[in-house]
Amino acid sequence: LVRDFPKRDYWIRLAGVHGQQGNEKEQIYAMQGAYTAGFLDGERDLMNFAGLLMQEQVPYRAAKVLEAGFEEEKIERSAKNLQGLGQAWQLAQETDKAIPAFEEAGRLAEDGRIYERLAQLYLDDDQFQRCIEASDSALDKGGLRSVQQAYIVKGMCQFNEDQSNRGKLSAARKSFVNCRNEARKDEDESNQRVCAQWITYIDRESSRLEQLES
């Protein structure tokens, strides 16, 4: 049918049958055929195709499919959809393209989870001031996977922003104290230890800087 009477429904059903049989590559080939023929023109089809590409570990192609969908206004610029684009670019190791997608998604999201992820991206990219701002946005919006981890990322960014500045060290220490307090509430012994170690280390660095200044 797809060879002799090509139409959207036949391609989609062919892909679906391959999916039910566990033939992932054949399922992707069918969806790619439909995409190339211009039959995937709805948000659901494009998101499903991008999801399959992500599963098959070709995130760059998934990101290009989503990006084209946004540009052609076939995919709504919702927090969920933009987060999907950001994840695809991140897995493709295209951090410069992932960050703007997560930024837009974070502004639209009801909770702070996307900002939580964005803060980690900024930390990995040595953008410490933006990391601090994203961490604050995550904590303000709430609904996080781990409040302790958000404070850890914020504290690390404050510490790395200027390790020779005692004011920055003091701000970082406050973040790790907040982390330890939250960890105690949740009886989270692992993060209690991590944050306590950071506090001890920062105290030593502050004392060393004070001695140098003297």
Describe this structure as you would to a colleague.
- It is a single chain.
- The protein has 214 residues and is mainly alpha-helical.
- The chain is 77% helix and 0% strand.
- It contains eleven helices and no strands.
- The longest helix is centred in the C-terminal third of the chain and has 25 residues, at 189-213.
- The protein is elongated.
- 38% of the residues are buried.
- The model has no long low-confidence stretch (mean pLDDT 93).
Largest sheet: none
How large, in whole angstroms, is the Cα Rg?
Answer: 23 Å
Number of strands: 0
Helical element count?
11
- Give the fraction of residues assigned to helices: over 70%
What separation lies between the terminal Cα atoms?
Answer: 84 Å
Low-confidence stretches: none
Structural class computed from helices and strand pairing: mainly alpha
Mean pLDDT: 93
Secondary-structure element pattern, one letter each: HHHHHHHHHHH
Beta-strand content:
under 5%
List keywords for this structure.
single chain, 214 residues, mainly alpha, 77% helix, elongated
Summarize the structure.
The protein has helices at residues 8-20, 24-36, 43-55, 59-71, 79-91, 95-108, 113-124, 128-141, 147-161, 166-185, 189-213. It is mainly alpha-helical and 214 residues long. The termini are far apart.
Question: Which SSEs are present, and which pair or pack?
Answer:
Layout lengths: L7 H13 L3 H13 L6 H13 L3 H13 L7 H13 L3 H14 L4 H12 L3 H14 L5 H15 L4 H20 L3 H25 L1
